[in-house]
Design goal:
Oligomer: single chain
Order of helices and strands: HEHHHEHEHEHEHEHEEHHHHEHEEH
Bound molecules: pyridoxal-5'-phosphate
Structural class: alpha/beta
Radius of gyration: 21 Å
CATH superfamily of the largest domain: Type I PLP-dependent aspartate aminotransferase-like (Major domain)
CATH architecture of the largest domain: 3-Layer(aba) Sandwich
Strand content: 5-15%
Strand order of the largest sheet: 2-8-7-6-5-3-4
CATH topology of the largest domain: Aspartate Aminotransferase, domain 2
Helix content: 40-55%
Largest sheet: 7 strands, mixed
Number of strands: 11
Number of helices: 15
Length: 398
C-alpha cells in the first residue's frame, strides 16, 4: 500500500504537557507550560479593544472576497507604523513594506521561502537555545541551520560567546535575532549589546532577521521596538517578522506580517513581487479577520489607546509576577539564586531548574513546565506565589 512506509513523529511536547495538566485533578495545580498569556483568573480572554473592533467589523464589513497577496493595505500601514515608528524615514521613502501573513509563524515561513528562493546558498544562524519552531521551519525550507551561543549551561546570557561566533559567520548568511522577550530564556540583550551585534552584522555583511513576537510584553510598546528601529536606521536591509498573537490576544486568528526594509523603493517593489509569488504558493492570500481587527484598532485613536492600556496591563502583570516570585523565594534562601527571573523579560523564564527538578515539580506538586526548565510566568496565579515558591524550594533543597 502507498502509505505503508510512513511512520509516526512524536507530538509537540508542550501539547502533551497541556493534556497532562488538564487530566490532573489537583485543584492546586499550576500551568506554566503553554506559551499563552493568562490573566489573574487563569484565562486568556479576548481584549476589550478587540471585541469593540469585531463589533464594528460585523456591522460594517460588506464582503468576504479575497484580499490581495500582501493582505490588507490598511493593516500593512498600521503594522509598519507600530513596528518601525510612524515617523520612520524608511516609510516616507517607501523602503519598508509589510506583507500580511498567517501569524508570526507565517511570516517566518515566508522569510524562509524568500531566503531559499531569492538568496540561495545562504545559511541561517539561530540562538542556542531558540524557539523550537525556528529550528524545524528553516530546515524544512532547505536552509542550512547553524547556531550561535546565547545562554550558557550556567543559565546566564553569554554575549561574549555570541559575538565571537557572529564574527565567524560567512558573509551573507542570515542571523535571526529576537527583538525582545527571548523565547525560551527571557534573557534580552542590553542596548549596549545590540550596538555590538549591529557592529558585527555590518562588518561581516550579514543579513539580520528580527523576530518580533512580543512587542509590548517586555518594557513597553515603544521601548521593545528600540533594537528593531536601531537596525532599520543603521542598516540598508533588514527582515522583520511581527506577530499580533500575543499583544492583541489574536492567537487563533493567525495575524502577523513580514516587513522588509530595502535599500531603495524600487528594490522593495522587486522583493514584494517575489513575496507575493511565494505567498501565493504557500497560502494564496492571508486570512483577513485578525488583520482587520488590528487595522480597526490601530486606525482609531480611542480604540488604540484602550488597546495600549490593555497591553500595558498584561505587561505589568507579568513584571509583578516576576518580582513577586523572586520575593516569595526569599524566605527559602533562594532569592539570589533565582534573581534572574526578575531580570528576564516577557512571558518566559529559563528558571535554571533541571529536568529532574521539573519532573519532581510535576509529579509531587502538580507544577507543569517544559523539561528545559522554561516557565511561562504569565501562567502563575498571583494569589498562590508562596505555594509555588515552596514547591520550587522543595525540589531545589531536598
Ligand atoms: C519567538 C516566537 N516567534 C514567533 C512566534 C509566532 O507566533 P504566532 O505564529 O502564533 O503569531 C512565537 C510564538 O510563540 C514565538 O515565541
Amino acid at each position: 500500500m502507498h502509505f505503508d512506509a510512513i511512520g509516526r513523529v512524536p507530538g509537540d511536547p508542550i501539547l502533551g504537557l497541556m493534556e497532562a495538566y488538564a487530566a490532573d485533578s489537583n485543584p492546586r495545580k499550576f500551568d506554566l507550560g503553554v506559551g499563552v498569556y493568562k490573566d489573574a483568573l487563569g484565562l486568556t480572554p479576548i481584549l476589550q479593544s478587540v471585541k469593540l473592533a469585531e463589533q464594528r467589523l460585523v456591522e460594517r464589513q460588506t464582503t468576504k472576497t479575497y484580499i490581495g497577496g500582501h493582505g490588507d493595505a490598511a493593516f500593512g500601514k498600521v503594522i509598519n507604523d507600530l513596528v518601525l515608528g510612524a515617523d520612520n524615514a524608511l516609510i516616507g521613502q517607501q523602503r519598508a513594506g509589510a506583507t500580511q501573513t498567517p501569524g508570526g509563524t507565517g511570516a517566518l515561513r515566508l522569510s524562509a521561502d524568500f531566503i531559499a528562493h531569492c538568496l540561495p546558498g545562504r545559511g541561517i544562524w539561530l540562538s542556542n537555545p531558540t524557539w523550537p519552531i525556528h529550528e524545524t521551519l528553516y530546515a524544512a525550507a532547505g536552509i542550512k541551520v547553524s547556531h550561535y551561543p546565547y545562554v550558557g549551561s550556567d543559565n546566564r546570557l553569554d554575549v561574549e560567546a555570541m559575538l565571537a561566533t557572529l564574527e565567524l559567520i560567512p558573509k551573507g548568511d542570515v542571523v535571526l535575532l529576537h527583538a525582545c522577550c527571548h523565547n525560551p530564556t527571557g534573557f534580552d540583550l542590553s542596548q549596549d549589546d545590540w550596538h555590538r551585534v549591529l557592529d558585527v552584522v555590518r562588518r561581516r555583511e550579514l543579513l539580520p532577521l528580527i523576530d518580533f513576537a512580543y512587542q509590548g510584553f517586555g518594557d513597553g510598546l515603544e521601548q521593545d521596538a528600540w533594537a528593531v528601529r536601531l537596525f532599520a536606521r543603521e542598516l540598508p536591509e533588514l527582515l522583520i517578522t511581527s506577530s499580533c498573537s500575543k499583544n492583541f490576544g489574536l492567537y487563533r486568528e493567525r495575524t502577523g506580517a513580514l516587513i522588509v526594509c530595502a535599500g531603495s523603493a524600487d528594490k522593495l517593489l522587486d522583493i514584494r513581487s517575489q513575496l507575493a509569488f511565494l505567498a501565493r504558493n504557500l497560502w494564496s492570500t492571508p486570512p483577513d479577520h485578525g488583520a482587520a481587527v488590528v487595522a480597526t484598532i490601530l486606525g482609531d485613536p480611542e480604540l488604540k489607546s484602550l488597546w495600549a492600556d490593555e497591553v500595558e496591563a498584561m505587561r505589568l502583570r507579568i513584571a509583578q509576577l516576576r518580582s513577586g516570585l523572586v520575593e516569595a523565594l526569599g524566605p527559602h534562601g533562594l532569592g539570589e539564586r533565582f534573581a534572574h527571573i526578575g531580570v528576564q523579560r516577557g512571558m518566559f523564564s529559563y528558571t535554571g531548574l533541571n529536568a529532574e527538578q521539573v519532573k519532581r515539580l510535576r509529579e509531587e506538586h502538580s507544577v507543569y513546565m517544559v523539561s528545559s526548565g522554561r516557565a511561562n510566568v504569565a501562567g502563575i496565579d498571583a494569589t498562590r506565589l508562596d505555594l509555588l515558591a515552596a514547591a520550587i524550594a522543595d525540589v531545589c533543597v531536598s
